[in-house]
Write a structure and sequence with these properties.
Blueprint (H helix, E strand, L loop, with lengths): L6 H11 L1 H32 L2 H22 L2 H11 L4 H25 L1 H7 L5 H8 L1 H6 L2 H11 L2 H24 L3 H11 L1 H11 L13 H33 L2 H20 L4 H14 L1 H28 L1 H8 L8 H26 L3 H52 L8 H21 L5 H19 L5 H11 L1 H8 L1
Length: 501
């Protein structure tokens, strides 16, 4: 939900409903985004503890497939609907009708294509036993195709509370159905059925609570305009989604071992959950950069530089702490059967800051009006990741795949940073800052690794070490009250500008 609430829609909503509505809407959508990631995280852990690693490996492939379906069906069209509805409510009915027609054609084509090639895809993944599951997964395309249109419409209309309720219904239904059907003894088939059925109650809610809009099609918004607006966003989001999941697909395809796939899926799920939670700042960052870019280039450079610095200060120690506590974290979440994935989780933990920074920096680039650069960078990194995984997987196994993923995101973050620096929008942190961050982070890793807290103690000990790290940076003068106040002052106009829009 992080980037779905576009600035245009927020501005329109603010104009129609006032400050209270916009604040409640932002709070509701942020809360739903957190709830969604927590539930998805809980499903992964629950199934990991219920299934053997080999069976969980199947689920890892299926869950990644579902995520790609959601990206394919949602990216572009949802934000296009939101954009046009937010721009002018008078065309809302027209945009809704035409978007549904576009989505219907697109959905049927995707369904028949994936259903027909499920057997071949299973062979590509190195396990013919996957074909039946993948064919069953294709029905998720039919049931989940419509919610993105409706959510985009509600966002553009300014009905943030209804949007939040609709999204909440879908994710809670998924949670309840997964464990109900699992308890009924349906196994992995029940999990797939739960994912496929979970969007239906949300659609029923839409039918009962949708705003009344005119249905006339007067040709003021062309189908081509909707598709032209959404296509670059679709390609860019799809490229990032593939970057996040291609490693798991290649593990299954090249190693052809469900047990190893399950181990890698567990480590990947643990590290991607905090990554997805970090995306919630995307809306605010996009809005601020777009506003400053049109008014004050010098203040824009200062804001971007300060954001990058604070992301480095906050993220690097998290990755080191997670890496040092990799074994107890895996044991307390997935169980002892998954402890062989510890080295993979350690490497992916170090990849975490680069994942977040890559996302943040490409948001900055897009907000500056260069969506083509963001899209091109994502597409360019895909063959890099494929090449590195293929080179390292046979010599280093799962750790080689994790290292290839980390190297790809590191390259992406550095490239995006150099682009912003070359264009004069970014000043890199001082060497003194990098020295303090690196030293304190290594010390945090060493403390966690040497003490090795077990059981629930790890949930208390890791945050304690993180706060100790922050205290060290405050004592060293790297985090000051003046800088924090300046950052808040820059962010503050977002709400007021949205209200004035």
């Amino acid at each position: 939900m992080s980037l779905e609430s576009t600035p245009a829609s927020l501005g329109k909503a603010a104009g129609d409903h006032g400050r209270g509505t916009i604040l409640r809407g932002v709070f509701s959508l942020t809360l739903v985004g957190v709830l969604t990631q927590v539930i998805n995280y809980g499903i992964h852990i629950g199934l990991g503890r219920s299934f053997a690693p080999a069976v969980y490996g199947y689920f890892g492939i299926i869950a990644a497939t579902f995520s790609l379906f959601e990206i394919i069906l949602r990216s572009g069209i949802q934000r296009a609907v939101c954009f046009f509805v937010a721009q002018e409510r008078g065309v809302a009915g027209e945009v809704l009708q035409k978007s549904l027609r576009i989505q219907a054609i697109y959905t049927l084509a995707c369904f028949f294509l994936f259903y027909s090639f499920a057997d071949r895809l299973a062979l590509v993944l190195g396990d013919p036993g996957l074909s039946g599951y993948l064919r069953f997964c294709s029905f998720f395309i039919l049931t989940s195709a419509w919610t993105p249109i409706y959510l985009g419409f509600l966002n553009g209309w300014g009905a943030f509370q209804q949007q939040a309720v609709m999204a909440t219904i879908a994710i809670l239904t998924r949670l309840l159905l997964v464990f109900a059907l699992l308890f009924a003894g349906m196994g992995l088939d029940g999990v797939i059925a739960a994912y496929a059925l979970s969007p239906l109650p949300a659609i029923v809610y839409w039918m009962r609570s949708a705003p009344v809009v005119p249905r006339n099609l007067n040709g003021r918004v062309q189908v081509r305009a909707i598709m032209t607006f959404g296509f670059p966003l679709f390609i860019s989001t799809l490229a990032v989604s593939l970057l996040m999941r291609i490693d798991l697909f290649m593990v299954q395809s090249l190693l052809e071992d469900r047990f190893l796939t399950g181990l890698y899926a567990s480590a990947s799920a643990l590290i991607k959950a905090p990554y997805f939670l970090s995306l919630g700042s995307g809306l605010v960052l996009f809005q601020v950069v777009a506003r400053l870019g049109a008014k004050d280039p010098s203040e824009l450079r200062e804001f971007i530089s300060r954001c990058v610095r604070y992301y480095l200060l906050g993220l690097v120690p998290i990755s080191c702490i997670l890496s040092g506590a990799a074994e107890p974290i895996l044991e307390i979440t997935f169980g002892r059967e998954y402890l062989p994935a510890t080295p993979v989780f350690m490497i992916l933990s170090l990849c975490f800051p680069f994942m977040v920074l890559y996302n943040v920096l490409t948001i900055f680039i897009s907000a500056l009006g260069r969506t083509d650069i963001s899209m091109g960078l994502g597409l360019a990194l895909l063959p890099v990741e494929l090449f590195l995984i293929y080179q390292w997987i046979f010599s280093n196994g799962l750790t080689g795949v994790a290292a290839a993923t980390a190297a790809t995101f590191a390259l992406g973050a550095v490239t995006a940073g150099l682009y912003l620096r070359r264009k004069g929008y970014l000043v890199f942190p001082r060497w003194r800052t990098l020295f303090y961050v690196g030293g304190a982070s290594v010390a945090s890793y060493y403390l966690v690794y040497q003490i090795s807290p077990s059981g629930l103690w790890v949930l208390l000990f890791c945050p304690l070490i993180y706060f100790l790290y922050l205290a060290l940076l405050v004592a060293a003068g790297e985090i000051g009250k003046g800088e924090i106040r300046a950052l808040i002052a820059t962010l503050a106009p977002v709400g007021s500008s949205a209200i004035r829009a």
